[in-house]
Amino acid sequence: ALLSPASASLCLQVALQALHHSQSPACSRLCQALIGCLLPEGDEGALVRGLEDPELSRLLEAAMAVAGANRLRDLYRRHLKGRLRGVANHRVANHGLQRLLDHAPCDVVDEAMAELGPTLSETLSRGHPGVLTALIGSCRRYPALQQEALRLLLQVSHAPPPS
User: Fold this and answer.
1) pLDDT tens digit string along 7-46?
2) Are 47 and 79 in contact (CB under 8 A)?
């Protein structure tokens, strides 16, 4: 019932943020409950459909912002791996992908970069530069990924690679 009205969704988003900032253990429990409710077990397409929905995507983005590395890794591998091109090119879902990249652990960013790399020109041509910005921004946190991120950035901008 709390997921339906837009105001309830907004309240849940704010509750997640407040609990996260207060470092309350209730944040993890609420996040897990929301993810469990929004993404039924065995439904691999639920996250993509949720990210494409204008109302649910906001709540999913808020959950991803506080989820933690292991939960984000699980969400990526169970629901998004192999589907990033469609998510990156979707007018609403690309924002959820950006939030995932903003908070993802190194191995998830590396896998996402490998999957998105060949299709980033298409994503940019559809008017979603935030995906590239989030991907490159997430690589700032992980020095091991920075060289590949620079190569990818130069490739997308059609600049010759540095010698």
Assistant:
1) 677 888 888 899 998 988 889 898 888 888 888 787 878 8
2) yes
Please state, as a whole number, how many other Cβ atoms lie within 10 Å of the Cβ of residue 140. Answer: 10
Contact criterion met (CB below 8 Å) for 94 and 130: yes
Residue bearing tokens 């890794």: 73
**Do 62 and 16 form a contact (C-beta atoms < 8 A)?**
yes
User: CA dihedral in degrees (129, 133, 134, 140; nearest 10)?
Assistant: 170
Q: Which residue has the tokens 């988003």?
A: 13
**What DSSP assignment string belongs to 4-69?**
SSHHHHHHHHHHHHHHHHTT-HHHHHHHHHHHHHHS-TT-TTHHHHHHHSHHHHHHHHHHHHHS-H
Which residues lie closer than 8 Å to 7 by C-beta, 6 or more apart? none
